Amino acid sequence: MLDQDFIRRTFSAFPRRTSAVGDLRPSAVLLPLFERENEPYLLFTRRTDDVRHHQGEISFPGGAWETTDVDLLATALREAEEEVGLKPSDVTVLGRLDDFESIHGYHVIPFIGYCKTSHQFRADPREIAEMIEVPIARLRDPAIFRVEDWTHRGRKIPVCFYTVDQHEIWGLTGEILRQFLDHTA
User: Fold this and answer.
1) 8-state DSSP, 89
2) What is the bridge-based pairing of β-strands 106-115 and 25-36?
3) Which of 18, 28, 34, 93 is 20 to 30 Å from 118 by CA-CA measure?
4) Left (φ > 0), alpha (ψ -120 to 50) or beta: where does 13 sit?
5) What is the DSSP letter of 105?
6) Confidence class for position 150, pLDDT limits 50, 70, 90
7) pLDDT tens digits, residue range 62-106?
8) What are phi and psi of 66, to 5 degrees?
9) Are 32 and 61 spatial neighbours (Cβ–Cβ below 8 Å)?
């Protein structure tokens, strides 16, 4: 069973690392937590091959800030509604993680949201090829996790990978997932 109060307390006391947006494009993602048969799950999406960025990659619902968004939480909730049909009123925000900077020029704020169990996700077929529901206990299995050292612009960076069935959760999504799992163990 998912302990929402524990997650809320953990991330309200979390010494968040923030960074200036600078030339990066502000964006946000939502880590949608939900329960199925009293077991906590996270929802991921696999992007279509038709989207402009990150074709075929596994990600959390989210995207770039738009001028109609009052803040980055509004961005995460708007994108979750557009991508997977999750209404903002069906989400209880439990906290947020560190600021992340993607190698693609985005400044990303991840928010953690609990979704009502009665919610049925509905993918937007223009953006989302598949929705992937994974039990958190499975994501904690060390056998599915690895870190590889990659070089980007002459700098070595560790890249997190989670292999779940035929899906590879990696890169920024893998790093966000790792931080969430590390702090909710």
Assistant:
1) G
2) parallel
3) 28
4) alpha
5) S
6) confident
7) 999 999 999 999 999 999 999 999 999 999 999 999 999 888 889
8) -120, 155
9) yes
CA 173 to chain centre: 6
Cβ(42)–Cβ(33) below 8 Å: yes
pLDDT tens column, 40-70: 999 999 988 675 666 668 999 999 999 999 9
- Spatial strand order in the sheet of 167-170: 145-152, 155-164, 167-170
Structure tokens at 153: 């612009």
| For residue 134, pLDDT beyond 70 | yes
* Amino acid present at 50: D
Where b means 16+ CB within 10 Å and e means fewer, 43-52 reads bbbbbbeeee
Nearest to 32, CA basis, from 98, 97, 82, 76: 76
CB atoms within 10 A of CB 170: 19
Locate 174 and state its tokens.
Answer: 């893998």
Q: Residue for token digits 């010494």? A: 15
